[in-house]
Amino acid sequence: MAKTGIIGAGSWGIALSLLLSKNGHEVSVWSALPEEIRELEETHTYHSLPGVQLPDTINFTADLEEVMKDKDLLVTAVPSVYVRETARKMKPWCRYGQMVVNVAKGIEESTLKTLSQILEEELPMANVAVLSGPSHAEEVSRGLPTTCVAGAHDQKTAEYIQNVFMSEVFRVYTSPDILGIELGGSLKNVIALAAGIADGLGYGDNTKAALITRGIAEITRLGVAMGGKVETFAGLSGIGDLIVTCASMHSRNRRAGILIGQGYTMEEAMKEVKMVVEGVYSAKAALKLAKKYHIPMPIIEQVNEVLFDNKPASEAVKDLMLRDKTMENTRLLWQ
């Protein structure tokens, strides 16, 4: 049995708390919102996971020291925009060698750092790892078969995380490529916005297949240039996460994109979705990274113009279709 503390009581943090509890681990969940903790304690349900009952064995607290004290494993599940602030609050109670697994997805716009890089910067004493993949909280909380990948600097840490999380309905693979895992998980949210916009415009399966395929090409080009491994982008946290986020109505990024395609502004779409739309926060960072590494990312560029420059979505699609003619893969040579 592992003593686990989950920092963040959003739908993903709650779904993982249920998974870990069913796996026989001791689980505590922290939220910065006392009213959220009161609701969880009183009802043992979570509003974004209807029909899911949480066991009495899960402890809920608004005390950060309590959720961190004497834990074998800490899971950071706060939205990307709050990761640095939360890590700073964690520092007084983070012991040397403390295992911290980040399960959030995003890139910090101001620094272009991944979330694990932020955690390592703010918590230099910690052993930071990641867990990511095609894993909607709604399905994990219902026990539907799901696969993820655990990334860590050393094999022992990755295998420990694998053992803690793995069950008959939650399969975990291991990988040394933390950077690639995080980039795939972050950048796919921006492509999912594009897929949703296409849905909102009334386009079909051909369009979505094109966005997914060309989207993973963009993500892979940038990810490899930054030091990620091409195999990672062909795996669960790359094409796997991209497919599920572009295709599922559980995806808040796709839902926001649909609304934008139907004529909503970015602000109106985020308000309607009622949850953090990570792709909006990652879009500018993705474009900055593309320019920094001189990587062509036309889908990312057009999403940014629609989100922040009021470009009509239909015009963005036309510009994507009418770009200069090119080969599908420039590494393939004619004989």
Describe, in plain words, how this protein is organized in 3D.
The protein is of the alpha/beta class. Helix content is 51%, strand content 12%. Helix 1 links the parallel strand 1 (3-7) and strand 2.
Q: In short, what is this structure?
A:
Residues 5-157 form the Glycerol-3-phosphate dehydrogenase NAD-dependent N-terminal domain. It catalyses: sn-glycerol 3-phosphate + NAD(+) = dihydroxyacetone phosphate + NADH + H(+); sn-glycerol 3-phosphate + NADP(+) = dihydroxyacetone phosphate + NADPH + H(+). The protein has 335 residues and is of the alpha/beta class.
**Sheet with the most strands?**
8 strands, mixed
Instruction: Give the termini separation.
Output: 59 Å
Total count of helical runs of at least 4 residues: 16
- Estimate the mean pLDDT confidence: 95
Q: From N to C, what is the helix and strand string?
A: EHEHEHEHEHEHEHEHHHHHHHHH
Class inferred from helices and paired strands: alpha/beta
Tell me the Rg in angstroms: 20 Å
List the uncertain runs: none
Share of residues in helices: 40-55%
Tell me how many strands there are. Answer: 8
Biggest sheet strand line-up: 3-2-1-4-5-6-7-8
The 3D shape can be described as: globular
* Residues in β-strands, percent: 5-15%
List the main descriptive attributes of the protein structure presented here.
alpha/beta; 16 helices; NAD; cytoplasm; 335 residues; 51% helix; 6-PGluconate_DH-like_C_sf; lipid metabolism; 12% strand; globular
